[in-house]
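Here is one chain, start to finish.
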Amino acid sequence: MPNTIEQRYPGIAKHLPRIELCERPTPVEVNEIVIDGARISVAVKRDDLTSPIYGGNKVRKLEYLLHRAKDRGASRVATFGAIASNHATATSIFSQREGFECTCFLSHQTRTPAAGRALHMHRQLGTRLVEYGGSRQKRIETLRQALPGQKTWVVPLGGTCWLGVVGVVDAGLELAAQIENGELPQPADLYVAMGTMGTVAGIAIGLALAELPTRVHAVRVTDEWVASPVILRQLVHKTATLLHRMDTRIPADLADRVNISYRPEFFGPGYARLTPESERAVAIADEQLGLKLENTYTGKAFAALLADGRSDVQTMFWNTYNSTPLPVDTLRPDDVSGIPEAFLSYFD
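Its structure:
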């Protein structure tokens, strides 16, 4: 089975060129874990290994989004996120690799070690960091002041828009090809963290294109105003509709074929706030699978898998977390130029 959307539907490549940033296919592993005496078969999709520079799920979206920035003649890429945003870090790393300057509009969050590390990385890269938040009017004014007179391509929060989702549709088709090749059994249930919804939408659409009945458990890790069932359905429908327009061999009813279970119950007290369930999940993943997860996204998704504890079917965990260590620490650097004063408290 072809494992990219361009191979399966060649007309898409004409409409949607991309920059090759990923090393694909990312590996799959099948292991057993023991939970409360029960053995559970867990397959893992190692999307933490999308790139040796900086892995994780965001790289797939950036292949299409950064190509579009080049098509539009942009000299700068701007995006949004919380302080420790993997998306903002990935956008800065790959934008600058492709010759763009980068601005990141960052909002405050719970203090975590990842926050200081991300800020340190942005400083090393020369990212322009802008404190972002407040009322709608204040946010608009911040954007106007920070991006004057430049040709800037703005990437939405999390890289989530229909174009970014297409990059993850590839991931769903990639997994289907690995199943067909016998690298893993077909999973009945697939668990993935849902932040801005693009990864969930893309995987589910890709699996539907491959006619796989796997149920995608969308484990919400952000506030509901960011990720809700209504917004998710709209994103799936828009992406599927536009793909059908580009290649009519893609089913017109594709959006109706996706199989997603919305799972909000592991969010806990707030974004980036750990829970006992996520702490336990992170420990089990480390001890029994050798996976380094975190409490904001992947720990909560793995907690959902553990809570369901299905020993009667093949289960899958999609690891969206970057596993490439950043060449920085969490300590406050001697030179903090370029880092807004309000962000300095995130360093150790």
